[in-house]
Input
Amino acid sequence: MDSDAIILGKTTTIVRCERKRPKHSGDILYVPLSFDKHALMEYMKTRLIRILKSEFLKLKKNGNFYIVGEIDFELVRKFRDRSILSMLKGSTILVREDAIKLTRIEIREVLVHELAHIFSKHHDEKFQMAMRYIGGKQRRLPIQA
Ligand SMILES: [Zn+2]
Output
């Protein structure tokens, strides 16, 4: 039984086949026959965490900002306020697990936004400046408040 899912901004067809591990190729995600809804969700979560970490490393490499200590990532099913996609809690960036639907650029934007909150709790001037430093020139429009 095949189904569709939105992964990284693209409608992706999930095809079950004789494979041991999932493989994403173009707009098809091949998964093992044994993959049920739960396994698929776990795969998506692992994928999202990996993307968050790799985008974070890329931002850090740009070297426009410096953070003392570690930043952790945690996925949450949903926030009490359903309109919230991500949140900074201490040094942990909480991200809603369905954020895997967003494009890579949008995920990066979520990251830039939350990282900027390390420098300011509010969406003030200082925050805007932090976003510019962290995100660099490639920044797109902010996608959330
Ligand atoms: Zn914010």
In short: The chain has a mean pLDDT of 91. The longest strand covers residues 10-17. The helical segments are 37-62, 104-119, 125-135.
